[in-house]
Amino acid sequence: MQDAAETVSLRLRLPNPDERRWITFEAPDRHILFSAAINGKAVTVLLDNGADRTLIDRGTASRLALKIRGNGLAAVTSAMTTIETMATETVTIEIPRALRVEGPMVASNLAPIARALGRPVDVVLGCEVLDEVAVMIDPSAKRMAFHTGASARPEAGTTRVPIDDGGMVSATLNGPSVRLKLDLGFNGVVRLSENAWRRSVRDGVPTGTGSQTTADGRTRMTSSVLAALRIGAVNVPRATVLDGYVPAGNADGLLGTGFLARGPIILDLKGRQLLLLPPQARQASRSWVPARSKAETISPR
After folding, report:
1. CB 40, CB 117: distance < 8 Å
2. All CATH 2.40.70.10 domain ranges in the chain, comma separated
3. Which stretches of the chain score pLDDT less than 50?
4. Closest of 150, 176, 151 to residue 252, by C-alpha
5. What is the pTM of this model?
6. pLDDT tens digits, residue range 149-171?
7. Which fold has domain 159-260?
């Protein structure tokens, strides 16, 4: 599989801290969608750090008259499926007073995602961007903000959860330890691999079978149980746990927005920390170290 990192490089720019604004978003089925612009044209963006590339829909690229070059590239979605992609010319994604991303994008067919969410999806903002910034998400107010990576500092009442290599956090399910990969593109609480399922929740209280749609637009049949989830100082006595996770690296499963959208958070992957904020901290004025605006060149992995 050819790696798109050979041809794609992005440049990020954050405005000065005192100029940054909140971004409002929609949350269909706990997926995060917000508005941005590509070369000045309005687009809808899905936030998904589980996607290893920032993707633009081929139909959108055509509508915006973007040149597409090359072929044979591949990208991995949050559901660990591989999709065919091609690189575009250099473009600019801009969220005014929030974030600017410049560089060639990776074009792919995002229609299955749009159908699954019942909303247009022009862009998937992936991990090569989200690994470099910190994002504060306030689910109840449906707003978020981008900040300099590794700049978040816990204030009183905040629960800090360390993030290790690969974007994973340590947790327990019914006692046994598991390593869960943080994934904003997964709208459940926890999804486990077969081995972790047998080890942790095999004897949990069954809640039946159903279907689960992931951010790549695929719907899968699942089994689910209720289990006691503990992450740091946070206990969820009856968390819904799904099966069907395809193992990647050392992860035992995914931790999705069913947990992450329980309250305001700061996801700071560069700073290797997940901050679970107290409700009164939504303004987050004390959660950031002052930083000057700067542009930073990054390369997708």
Report:
1. no
2. 2-147+289-298, 159-260
3. 1-7, 79-80, 284-286, 288-301
4. 176
5. 0.86
6. 999 888 888 999 999 988 999 99
7. Cathepsin D, subunit A; domain 1 (2.40.70)
